[in-house]
Amino acid sequence: MPRLKSERSYWLGLSAAHGVALALLTMTDLPWPGLLLIFAALVVFLIVQGLLYGQFDKAVLYEVDPRKGTAGALLTFFPLGTYLIRGSEIALWAGPLYGLIASAGSYAILKKYGYFYRPAVPATEPGSTK
Asked: For 97, which DSSP code?
């Protein structure tokens, strides 16, 4: 499987999925099985995205920069707004707006604090045509 290398497009995909999931959760008044279905679709997307961009390599465990672990903690604040808006009379118009805000905020947080693994490029031997 070819690995995609653009850090920017990786962050865009993750933040868009985060924003869409939060917008859906805000606008719909589903029972728990429906909410679990949205969550499962988000998790499947995250796994496929990570596989496409090579973020599940064994070396990732050893090369993670501990200073970049802040993104996950900061992104947990966006679902809190979902619960404040959900079920209110403004949810139908505020849900998509909140999804856009969450998506833009997620992208900014991931761009600054996120970790994108790039495998080390082996040095080529002198005289090699590669």
From this structure: H
98-119 burial code (b ≥16 CB/10 A, e <16): bbebbbebbbebbeebbbbbee
DSSP at 88: S
Sequence-separated (6 or more) residues with CB below 8 Å from residue 123: none
Asked if 117 contacts 63 with a C-beta cutoff of 8 angstroms, the reply is yes
Residue 125 has pLDDT above 60, yes or no: no
Nearest to 109 by CA among 85, 76, 64, 63: 76
Could you give the 3-state DSSP secondary structure of residue 43? helix
Instruction: Note the pTM of the prediction, 2 decimals.
Output: 0.79
∠ Cα 60 115 66 (to 5°): 75
